[in-house]
Write a structure and sequence with these properties.
Blueprint: E1 7-13, E2 16-22, H1 24-38, H2 40-48, H3 54-61, E3 65-68, E4 71-74, H4 83-99, E5 108-109, H5 110-117, H6 121-133, E6 137-142, E7 145-150, H7 152-165
Antiparallel strand pairs: 1-2, 3-4, 5-7, 6-7
Helix pairs in contact: 1-2, 3-4, 4-7
Amino acid sequence: MSEENTVSVTVSYRDVKVVFTGEPLQVLSSTTSFLSKEIPSLDLAHRISLNYSVSEMIELFSDNILITPEGPRVWYKDGELSDKVVIGLQLVASKIAKILGKTPRSNLSLQEIESLTSLKTKSISSRISEMSKLGYIEKEQRDHLVAYGLTTIGVKWLSGTLHKQS
């Protein structure tokens, strides 16, 4: 393990002090596990909490999205995925790219979604309306444009939908 990829976390709780050192994901997992065991109320809260880290989203969607030098892209064969899923994947790819610092924003306009996915405007508009009503997408006013972003519930829906298809 190179020094460059090593992190160290020290956790002190009551009379216990623990140091976790290693690769970032390993340390995160160990720290979370320790806290869940030492502070049971954290584990209970975790059971009803829904939040995706960037590493979880990458793990969930890495088969269907790519972050390229040209920007985030959906990777699929024509006819393989519904328009709703393609839109969701494009929005989650944009969300991940923003978190990773690869793009300046995560929300996309209707025209940007059309350009990136090659879907028809009417289909995108209809699917966005459906997804908004279900709480999967949120609308944001940006300058004189409306932009759309995937919500946490949208990420959960998209993950479940893709899992059912595989």
